UniProtKB/TrEMBL annotation:
Localization, UniProt: Cell membrane
Natural source organism: Flavivirga rizhaonensis
Top-rank taxon: Bacteria
Name recorded for this polypeptide: MFS transporter
PANTHER family recorded: ENTEROBACTIN EXPORTER ENTS, INTEGRAL MEMBRANE EFFLUX PROTEIN-RELATED
């Protein structure tokens, strides 16, 4: 296998199956998220309700994260992921039923809304297991020397699904309505489960099976906080995502500011993923491990600028371009972060480290949605987005000034060491 082969990871059969599973699952999940966002805002006409969706997901995802990481490190990964997908299919089925007039025809709007929030809450519980399980499984499929290449294709697949899922979701709302859109999502989740079973079970590499939970969790947290590259990447991205995410308010922009309807909403929602996907394809050919720290800082700074432009724009094509370029900068950031995590994390701690990452980064998406809903309600939608972008810029500048070691972070030697080890 060539050292600089941009398709190195794709030459592994099980990795291709894994990518297909992830594509179908993320396509369905991202499609479901915007369909529910649209439905909830249509019911309430209150931007705070969009923030509550994020809050309902973050509470269980955050509180369960460390425990989920411990479980992932103790269990076989393929079957654990299958269990999570099966449980997620029940959520999709529940949302489908909640939009069926024959089932909820006599329900009040409040009852339907609270039931949706309840299913989102259950989804947050599952999410705490999804991230660590997927992160651990991919490391068991590909050899260490091609982790950066695998991270690029893995992130690219996630972004491609993030492009097509929201776009199709927005279009399907207009074509067949919310109810039947959710039926399609239920079918996609079941399909991902069937495909996953084509991957063989993997060995459990943790030598401390049966280790007490508290001791296991302490070890995972201690490792993250003493590994400056991992901690720096997590912290920087957490704050940037927390304050710089405008995605949660897109239904407001689409319906009330840009006035582009559900089709325009789908296009706007997909634009960041399109930009990120293009960037990730480029990084498969042009590695970005050299001077990774400065590149990560520059990428997140560019992301903040794009968010500010989007918030100030009242012209559809300007807003679309701003979101597209925000995705391109986020694509660089994502590949660097995933490479840092894969390279710096030992096999027996992948579940716990990924769980800490989900507490820092993954949960900040939902907390950011809640923050956006609150600030939009009390500051106005445009002001809220501009404020978030400005906070992102301040975070990047502060990090660059106070952490010279992070500015100098270079992953080239780590990658070369893994290549020699393999």
């Amino acid at each position: 296998m060539a050292k600089k082969d941009p398709y190195a990871a794709l030459r592994i059969k099980e990795f291709n199956i894994f990518l297909l599973v992830r594509f179908v699952l993320v396509f369905g999940w991202s499609m479901q998220f915007i369909v529910i966002e649209w439905q909830v805002y249509s019911i309430t006409k209150d931007p705070l309700s969009l923030g509550i969706i994020g809050l309902m997901e973050i509470i269980p995802a955050f509180t369960m994260a460390l425990f989920a990481g411990h479980i992932v490190d103790q269990k076989e990964k393929r079957n654990l992921l299958a269990t999570c997908i099966a449980a997620f299919s029940l959520i999709s089925l529940g949302l489908f039923l909640l939009t069926w007039d024959e089932v909820v025809g006599d329900w009040t709007t409040k009852a339907i809304l609270y039931s949706i929030y309840g299913l989102v809450f259950f989804g947050g519980f599952l999410r705490s297991f999804f991230g660590p399980t997927i992160f651990s499984l991919v490391a068991l499929i590909v050899p260490k020397k091609i982790y950066p290449n695998a991270a690029t294709w893995n992130s690219s697949t996630w972004q491609m699904a993030g492009v097509l899922g929201p776009a199709f979701g927005g279009l399907s709302i207009g074509w067949i309505g919310v109810h039947w859109s959710l039926c399609i999502i239920f079918g996609l989740v079941l399909l991902s489960l069937i495909i996953l079973l084509q991957i063989k079970k993997k060995p459990v590499l943790n030598p401390k099976i049966g280790e007490p939970v508290i001791q296991s969790l302490k070890e995972g947290v201690r490792f993250v906080f003493k590994t400056k590259a991992i901690l720096g990447a997590m912290t920087l991205d957490m704050v940037a995502v927390l304050f710089g995410g405008a995605i949660a308010l897109l239904p407001v922009f689409a319906q009330d500011i840009l006035k582009v309807g559900s089709e325009g909403f789908g296009v706007l929602r997909a634009a960041p993923a399109v930009g990120a996907f293009i960037t990730m394809l480029i990084t498969a050919y042009i590695p970005i491990s050299k001077n990774a720290g400065m590149k990560l800082l520059a990428a997140i700074f560019g992301f903040g600028v794009c968010i500010i432009v989007f918030g100030l724009s009242s012209i559809f094509w300007v807003s679309l371009l701003a979101l597209f370029f925000s995705g391109m900068t986020d694509g660089v950031s994502m590949v660097i972060r995933q490479t840092i995590l894969q390279i710096k994390t030992p096999d027996n701690m992948r579940g716990r480290v990924s769980s800490v990452n989900s507490m820092f980064v993954g949960s900040s998406n939902e907390l950011g949605a809640f923050e956006s809903g609150i600030t939009a309600k009390y500051m106005g939608t445009v002001t809220a987005v501009v404020f978030g972008g400005t906070m992102t810029l301040i975070t990047v500048i502060t990090t660059g000034l106070v952490s010279p070691s992070f500015r100098k972070l270079d992953l080239t030697k780590d990658i070369e060491a893994h290549e020699k080890a393999d």
